[in-house]
Amino acid sequence: MYSFFHSFSDAYKDVLSFKVYVNQWDSFDVLIHPDPLRNCYFITDGWDKIVRYMDLLTGVVLVLRYVANYTFQLTVFNLNGCEIIVTKADDSLKGDTSSHKFQLAEIAKDMDHRSDVEESSDEDFDSDCVVSDESSDDGGDEDFVVMVSDYEADPNYHPIEFVWDYQQRFHLNAKVPSMARIDMSLKMTVQNLNGVDTIVNFRPEKHGKGFRYVAWEWTKKFTKPDRIHRNMKCKFVYSPDKAKLILEKVYK
Predict the structure, then answer these.
(1) For 190-249, what is each residue's pLDDT tens digit?
(2) DSSP string spanning the chain?
(3) Are 167 and 231 in contact (CB under 8 A)?
(4) CATH for 2-116?
(5) Where in this protein does the record put region Disordered (predicted)?
(6) Lower Cβ count inside 10 Å, N or C end of the chain?
(7) Region of poorest pLDDT, from 69-83, 86-100, 157-171, 227-241
(8) Does 2-116 match 147-251 in CATH topology?
(9) What band does 88 get if pLDDT is binned at 50, 70 and 90?
(10) pLDDT for residue 197
(11) pTM
């Protein structure tokens, strides 16, 4: 495991995961675990993927630069002062990156993504929301959880176009969050039948072999205002061109 110094971990006392970008296209979710005895945080699950992806060896210098919204940019230098740049990966390489190659380039410019990432606030998050893998059939006024799985074997996996039953939790697959860049902004636009957009906030959370993104106040922000109740079903489709999840149909 890899540890953070106290000065870094102060800002992350309530955060369990963050995003690490290895270039301008590819990123990984990693978990952190507090160690009160050493007064620091340890990087746990997820870091090994970065090591394999970048083929990291000894004799390199790693620089983690904070961007925003629990997001970091990882820069790697060799001992000659050259930056190790990872080229863009195909989707097929996401699962197996052991053969991924990188190239060397002279240090050119600082990749600052601050303007590309909006600061988010935790004020609207529902702290009483309980995450569970079990289906809910009571259909009351509780806040349903939006979960995201990043591998097809997971029961939470669904295609881009899908039908959601109100009595079940609202699940998305990893392709939609990746296309919507939920990992960067921690929010996504959802359009109702009247064409009105609602911004839904998300938080990353480890789930099985991968990660899911949990939406907060889903009932308050979407189902109640649109009068969607139990025994109703909703057909959703994600539009990459409009960068939003669109509600196309509601029926019983």
Answers:
(1) 999 999 999 988 777 666 666 667 777 878 888 889 889 888 998 888 887 788 899 999
(2) -EE--HHHHGGGTT--EEEEESSSS-EEEEEEEEETTTTEEEE-TTHHHHHHHHT--SSEEEEEEEEETTEEEEEEEETTS-EEEEPPPPGGGTT--TT--EEEE--------GGGS----STT--TT----SS-----SS--PPBEEESSTTSTT---SEEEEETTS--EEESHHHHHHTHHHHSEEEEE-TTS-EEEEEEEEEEETTEEEEEESSHIIIIITTTT--TT-EEEEEEETTTTEEEEEEEE-
(3) yes
(4) 2.40.330.10
(5) 112-141
(6) C
(7) 86-100
(8) yes
(9) low
(10) 94
(11) 0.41
Domain ranges, ordered by start, for the chain? 2-116, 147-251
Rounded Cα distance, 68 and 113, in Å: 8
Please give the distance of CA 20 from its chain centroid, rounded to a whole number: 11
CATH number of the domain located at residue range(s) 147-251 in this protein: 2.40.330
Give the pLDDT confidence score for residue 128 in this predicted structure.
Answer: 30
